[in-house]
Amino acid sequence: MGSISALVGVLLLSAMAVAAAVLDPQNVSSPGALVWSTAKEEKDLLQKSDDSNHDSTSSTPAAAVDDLDGGFSSLDSMLQWAIGHSDPAKLKETAEGVQRLSPSELQQRQQEIKELMEKLKMPSDAQLMQTALDDLNNSSLSLEDRQRALQELLILVEPIDNANDLCKLGGLRVIVQELDHPDSEIRTTTAWVLGKASQNNPFVQNQVLDLGVLAKLMKMVKSSSIEEAIKALYAVSALIRNNFAGQTLFYAEAGEMMLQDILSNSSIDIRLRRKAVFLIGDLVERQLENIDHAEMPFFSNCFFLKSVVDLTTSSDLDLQEKALLAIKNLLQLKTTEALVFKDFCHLDNALERMRERLEDLMYEEFNRDYVIDIEGLRKEVEQIYHRKLEKVRAVPA
Ligand SMILES: *[C@@H]1O[C@H](CO)[C@@H](O)[C@H](O)[C@H]1NC(C)=O
Ligand SMILES: *[C@@H]1O[C@H](CO)[C@@H](O)[C@H](O)[C@H]1NC(C)=O
Ligand SMILES: *[C@@H]1O[C@H](CO)[C@@H](O)[C@H](O)[C@H]1NC(C)=O
Ligand SMILES: *[C@@H]1O[C@H](CO)[C@@H](O)[C@H](O)[C@H]1NC(C)=O
213 lies in which domain range? Predict the structure, then answer.
């Protein structure tokens, strides 16, 4: 979408001077050369906007077009907008060139501008989504085109307004059907789209949950295709993050068992294990923020706690860090017991071994800052753990 907006912006910059003069053909006085876009230059513009579609500053028309969602309702509104947003001095200078033209020449220019702009008028994001949805809803669409429609939606649903529009277009119902597609790659991209649309968006989260697909996505997490499993867990996380109703459904479907299975099996792909432990840390954090909600009994289960603590032995720093964050939160729950961490999970040993390994890594240049950060987090966990232990010891038996 960025390149489309940038293209419209570049086009407008070159065309609006001409357009202004055409709209106001009264002043036919000053000399000057006419700057006009030929078809060849138009191609150059396309090229240019492709090269530079990321460095437009906030004051360029390209950025302003973004605000307008990439679409104008009519050619007139596009011209009005262009004139309103232009530098008057520059516009006048170029427009003066045009004003030397005879009325018939002007009329011809006007026609050419109109054709050029019609040709380049871009559909809005909502229209693009509708097209992709119509494709998806067509059972005779080829696998390749189906995948492409989903990939387009993946990009389109990223802005929160678009995700909301997708719901209003009835798009979720169409997308959700694709979770039943026999092709694993189609299901994978579908889960990805649903996750992206739901992320940090309670409105979409609730609509997707209402369609009853959480259980299906949770089954997909057990898929033999690791990519499908990863995207499914991504979607599950996006649906239940900060969403109490979603979390209730998740636990009703034994989501905690699903997570524990992933944590306790070291032959499962590391990316899936990272996502699982990150989700646990997040779920516990929500629990800490909502003290009026009863704590999930599962979080104080000793086998579960041990499988989280055991992750600290991983050689993957990212996984270690996410495990530490989860442990930090779990230690702060009222229902977890310090002595379980000590006697059953052997947290002392785990933290000490981790300290030694991190110390060794600190002598290496590679990742040094990251290692220092993790050691800082490890120390913090150690302090929280010791405070929790002291509280137990302070209580007379
Ligand atoms: C057209 O010319 C008149 C007289 O020179 C001037 O007052 C007016 O502002 C001009 N209009 C535009 C759009 O340049
Ligand atoms: C999808 O197609 C069916 C007919 O096959 C139609 O009834 C339904 O309205 C379509 N859904 C959307 C969102 O276009
Ligand atoms: C469905 O897709 C097929 C194959 O691409 C196409 O020929 C047909 O026109 C489409 N039908 C509709 C209703 O869009
Ligand atoms: C662990 O994961 C592997 C790979 O996904 C799987 O084949 C195996 O059955 C799992 N083991 C257990 C005990 O679940």
Answer: 124-240
Q: Clarify whether residues 80 and 185 are in a common domain.
A: no
Q: Is the CB of 24 under 6 A from ligand 1?
A: yes
pTM over cut 0.90: no
Q: Is the CB of 141 under 6 A from ligand 3?
A: yes
Paired tokens of 172: 């979720």
Place of tokens 């997707």: 208
Write the CATH number for 396.
1.25.10
The pLDDT tens digits for 3-22 are: 444 445 444 545 555 555 55
**Pair (231, 266) in one structural domain:** no
Q: Which residue has the higher pLDDT, 53 or 383?
A: 383
Which residue's alpha carbon is at the smallest distance from atom 2 of ligand 2? 137
* Nearest CA, atom 13, ligand 4: 265
Pocket test residue of 267, 270, 307 for ligand 4, highest count of atoms within 8 A of CB: 267
Q: CATH code at 191?
A: 1.25.10.10
